[in-house]
UniProtKB/TrEMBL annotation:
Stored InterPro entries: DUF6968
Annotated protein name in UniProt: DUF6968 domain-containing protein
Lineage: Bacteria, Pseudomonadati, Pseudomonadota, Alphaproteobacteria, Hyphomicrobiales
Boundaries of every DUF6968 domain copy: 4-95
Pfam family of the protein (one): DUF6968
């Protein structure tokens, strides 16, 4: 079951605005761990991911961090035309420690 969604926007070189929906699904118990699925609807296709944790909270936190990493390591971010609100304002997702140097805008301000 989908539990959260956020829509980013990518502005193509020709100026066309393309919606980039992000969906986060409820963690599900597996036989040995918990899994939390997510999708990112990139302009070139949907990327599906899964984060695994010892419990549902850890799986959820890891999925949210994975979304942030996927956004910041994407070619779309590198163009500076991927937005959530204002240009270079960030995306509202945390990232893992090894990606914090990539943060922009409000994401950078609120990362401690």
């Amino acid at each position: 079951m989908m539990i959260a969604q956020r829509n980013l926007e990518y502005v193509a070189e020709n100026g066309t605005a393309i919606s980039v929906p992000i969906q986060l699904f409820s963690p599900e118990e597996d036989d040995r761990c918990w899994a939390c699925r997510y999708t990112i609807g990139w302009p070139n296709g949907v990327k599906s991911g899964v984060a695994y944790g010892f419990d549902s909270v850890q799986a959820l936190i890891l999925a949210i961090n994975s979304i942030g990493n996927d956004l910041y390591f994407s070619d779309y971010h590198k163009t500076s035309r991927l937005t959530w609100g204002e240009i270079n304002g960030g995306y509202g997702f945390p990232v893992t420690k090894n990606a914090r140097d990539l943060l922009v805008g409000y994401d950078k301000e609120f990362d401690d």
